Amino acid sequence: MILLGAGAGLGLWALVVWLVPPRPPLAELIARIQAQPKPRPLLTPQGGSWAVRLGSPFTARLRSLGLPHTSIEKDLAITGRSADTHLAEKAALALAGLLLPVAVGLVLALGGRPQPWPVPTGASLALAAGGFLLPDLTVRTEARRRRTAFRHALSSYLNLLHILLAGGAGVDAALHDAADTGQGWAYRQLRRALNTARLTRSSPWTVLGQLGEELEIGELTELAASLSLAGTEGAKVRASLAAKAAAMRTRDGAEAEGQANAATERMALPGMLMAFGFVIFVFYPALVQIAVSL
What we know:
By secondary structure, the chain is an all-alpha fold.
């Protein structure tokens, strides 16, 4: 009855939205008309899995609800996943979580052990909500990990730039040579950005600034601003690059130490639980004997 009521309410709401569609404000319509075309994103998405094929029919409905949010879209760009793939996975996992307890309840009922209807209903709703939110948590965790890795790689990239500039290389040549030296996801993104700047005849610091905005890494945006001064005004940036690299190494070391301390503190709780379980394991037989003798 709960599922039927929810389905009927959802159908009535969809009918009302179809009959009386929402009207956007005038300012939003004018902004759409006067909007300038955005540059092509540097981060390209990849394909999906079985969940994408299962949940793809629901992506249009989820997009009409305003999903995904802007913050999630940036995290998706960093992880290399498209918004349609993410929404399809959310729909597929929510559908799987909704139907799994129902299937288990039917199997138990056929086996002669029927469950009260609140148990499978509550489990279905809880698993559906968890499955719907799980892709967001996964994407945010992966994006946070990639941002951290990119900051570490950017620190070494700044050191390479400083060495090449000290050797007499130009700014443009130093940017490309330093990017060709390193390996990994971060250096691949830097090489792609610099190659895009070369092919589109754009300044490399402009494209690096765009990449910093897409990745939400302020250090890369600051690097692009410093290189812009060096390329247009002829400013000496070698000392500032060395200072930025040193500051990033210091901050990374402090963050690593803080994460290690947090992990050490988290290990205290499992140790306490193990000690408590050991005490129960040792004293439980004696307590049982005392209780029986009384």
